[in-house]
Amino acid sequence: MMQPRFPFLDTLFLLRNDECITIFTDIHEISAKEISDTADYLESEFEKERLEFQSNQIDFNKEAAVWAAKVLYHSAQLYLVRKDTSKDLRKLIPEYTGKRDVSFLLSADLSLRFLPQIITALYDADPEDPLIRMLENILQEFHYSAVGFDAELGNINWEEELKDKTYRKLYLERIVEKRSYQLAEIPYINQLLIAEFGIFKDIYWKELKIIEN
Prior knowledge:
Helix content: 55-70%
Number of helices: 12
Order of helices and strands: HHHHHHHHHHHH
Radius of gyration: 18 Å
Largest sheet: none
Shape: globular
Structural class: mainly alpha
Distance between the termini: 49 Å
Strand content: under 5%
């Protein structure tokens, strides 16, 4: 198992393995070496999770994974280190401008799935923190990573969003795992879930209502 050697990788490694973070005294500049090592680590994690995809058609998207890792790392550090950072928030938490596809969503999710915990901590410290809205906007676009967080979803064409069968499978599984009623009671998603459950619906999720169109 790869061991953490740098602040950037250390933060991601601990979050993914122990669900805890290390807060450093300053926000360190991320070196090219750290980015390379982190990309290798995330790719190895992606390959492990690929076993659940039941598909070999989805490749690791290095650009998306590194971008999401930087967002998570900087968000975690900004929880405590805020001196002289307000002018740099957009630089530290940039928007993603690359291609949005299933490979991109699942690669980014390696890190973004932990973002709701950071948002909750930030909100508890200061509900007016402008960083919160920036992170919520990211999760509104990457809502797969926010399942269970009850993020604002906006106007989503779910039939189009879930047209890829692998992404659809993973999305439905996460809804069930997180018991996200917000998503499970959306009519289209509800129909998909009920069809998947079949006669075992009460075993999988007894409390879930069947939503009629």
